[in-house]
Amino acid sequence: MKPALPFAFLLLLSSLSAAQTTPRPAITGISHVVLFADNLSKSREFYVSLVGWDPVPAGAAHSGVRIYANHSQYIELISPPRAGILDRLDAIYFSTSDASALRRYLGAHGVAVPAAVTRSSDGSRSFQVLDPEGNKVGFAQPGRHFPPEPADASRRLSAHILHAGYVVRNRAALDHFYKDILGFHLYWQGGAHPGETDWVMMQVPNGADWFEYMLNLPAQPSRSQLGSADHFAPGVVSVAQLQSRLERRGWAPPSGKNPQVLGVDGKMQLDLRDPDGTRVEFMEYLPVKQPCCSPYTGVQPSPPTGW
Questions:
Q1: How far apart are CA 281 and CA 205, in angstroms?
Q2: Tens digits of per-residue pLDDT, 117-127?
Q3: Per CATH, the architecture of 27-141 is what?
Q4: What are the start and end residues of each CATH 3.10.180.10 domain in the chain?
Q5: Distance of alpha carbon 299 from its chain centroid, rounded?
Q6: Would you state the pLDDT for residue 100?
Q7: Which residues pair with 119 in a beta bridge?
Q8: Fewer C-beta neighbours within 10 Å, C or N terminus of the chain?
Q9: d(CA 81, CA 20)
Q10: Which of 16-30, 35-49, 274-288 is least confident?
Q11: b/e string for 276-286 if b means 16 or more Cβ within 10 A?
Q12: How big is the CA angle at 276 (ends 273 and 277), to the nearest 5 degrees?
């Protein structure tokens, strides 16, 4: 008679079997970014009046506001839980075709997940986990009732959030989470100096948006450094046209400095800082020259056609 298998070993076999048989639902892009705002009214004014996005109340869960770039992507501004928080980024959410199935998939792959998804009054479903470094990462399945198209959608400086990023210390650990488990793939990587990798772009498995590792930050970064690293990027066709529109709204570039910058990734960009110091990296959809350091290995994004 063969000896009985240890219970712990049976649990391991069961877990491995579940991981192999649980399919991963589609992850299609950036859903929203949650930011701390010390002065909600002032931050709202920046995103609504200058950027031209559409505000709606965030709901009973937060005393904040959602600012929509399009019918399904938005920035959510909330009050910080305490004064003096240096890091203004609370969470990044990705869109998924099935939040409940993705929660089960992540649980089967050893990620600590909540007991159930959160269901909102608009029919959307979402849940949140922690990445290997303790950053909040969420997944949202859009609901049935999107915000109506604003009366003047043409005021938007951008109609799409291309990517978001935050400080990463351990690339191997984040690769296991984003690449091995979630199915993201390398889009581009490079650095400010030859032979260095400061930025790693990981594209979603079922779309053109991406998440960016911001590497090589100091051990104790300042609020300004955090505000630059923990960022998000609205897409534009032309940063030259963007600057003209900004100036017509009363914005002025820093004295003696050209705000239009050609990144080492070959794409033009223009950075703004919101009232809390978060970098809003307006970026052109397509590169204007060959990137340094490595080629693009994913699909290039394109401007949306409507709200």
A1: 23
A2: 999 888 899 99
A3: Roll (3.10)
A4: 27-141, 158-284
A5: 18
A6: 98
A7: 125
A8: N
A9: 40
A10: 16-30
A11: bbbbbbbbbbe
A12: 40
Residues 130-185: tens digit of each pLDDT:
999 999 999 999 987 678 889 899 999 999 999 999 999 999 999 999 999 999 99
- Residue type at position 22: T
At 275-302, the pLDDT tens digits run 999 999 999 999 999 999 999 999 999 9
- Is residue 283 within 8 Å of residue 235, measured between CB atoms? yes
- Terminal CA-CA length for the chain: 68
Percent of all residues in the chain with a pLDDT value above 90, rounded to a whole number: 82
pLDDT at 5 over 80: no
Q: Token pair of 139, please?
A: 């997944």
Q: Which CATH architecture has domain 158-284?
A: Roll (3.10)
Structure tokens at 252: 């002025």
- Confirm if 64 and 78 have CB atoms less than 8 A apart: yes
